[in-house]
Write a structure and sequence with these properties.
By secondary structure, the chain is of the alpha+beta class. It has one domain. Helix content is 22%, strand content 17%. The protein has a four-stranded antiparallel sheet with strand order 1-2-3-4, with helices on one face. A hairpin with a 6-residue loop joins strand 1 and strand 2.
Length: 130
């Protein structure tokens, strides 16, 4: 590599398979993963992460065994849940991969979030672990 030269790369937009979340949610999640302002990636125009839908309870079944079958050993994950008969969504980011080892792990890079109204991105609340 030549010093002081910038690398050119293309980031593919996240593939959306959801009726619950929109493209702007990914901007917020990516910004928070990098501990940036809520809409940091919305402002700069690209997200340096690839988001893939691993598990959907309505599609895959709603059991812990199926969740772990689909999500274990896949790396960092975001879990999102919509409250029935409302516009509220809740979830969390886990930078550690899920596994079924029955062991506890610790990180200061996880966070939880909520949206009072899922289409109102200003209603986002985020809390980091201490």
């Amino acid at each position: 590599m030549a010093p002081n030269n910038k690398l050119n790369f293309v980031i593919q937009p996240p593939r959306l398979y959801s009726t619950v979340i929109k493209r702007q949610h990914f901007d917020i999640y990516a910004s928070r993963i990098d501990k940036k302002d809520t809409l940091y990636y919305n402002d700069i125009g690209h997200i340096p992460y690839e988001f893939n839908l691993l598990y959907r309870a309505s599609r895959d079944g709603n059991t812990p065994a199926i969740f772990h079958e689909k999500c274990d050993n896949k790396g960092a994950t975001i879990v999102i849940a919509k409250i029935n008969n409302s516009e509220q969504i809740y979830g969390g980011y886990n930078p550690l991969q899920w596994d079924s080892s029955d062991s506890y792990k610790s990180t200061k890079n996880s966070f939880i979030f909520s949206f009072k109204y899922r289409t109102d991105f200003q209603s986002a609340k985020v809390g980091y672990t201490l």
